[in-house]
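Teaching assistant's notes for section 4

Start the section by putting this record on the projector. Ask students to predict, before seeing the second block, whether Biopolymer transporter ExbD will look compact or extended. Collect guesses on the board.
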Amino acid sequence: MRRRKGRGAEEDSSEIDLTPMLDVVFIMLIFFIVTASFVKESTIDVNMPENQENPPPPTDDDTSAIVVKVLANDEIWMEERRVDIRSVRANIERIHAEKPQAPVVVKADANSTAKIFVAVADAAREANVYNVSLLPPEVKK
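Reveal the predicted structure now:
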């Protein structure tokens, strides 16, 4: 005797159970939500001073400050000559020996990177000059 397959048995074997797939999707969703909440971007908040009518800070003409210019392409200039980042410390030490009370003033272009300012500030600290200031970029009219 041959057994005939019923129509109901044929339908049961063709169905796919989606429950395990949904479980995996929900577990992955929970994982990404939990890990995304722990990721924090490290940034530095910079408070720029407001434009005031106070006298301007020291510039190149002021001989009492050690002025370091940073151009838009991150070139460093001291005493009207281009200086490599590796020789900034030696130059600051030399000028500081001549003017012991002189602060270091960094005149940075608006398009220069903060990495150069940090390198100049570190070089000044290595040269035992702890009074380092950053001038805001000049506003072109």
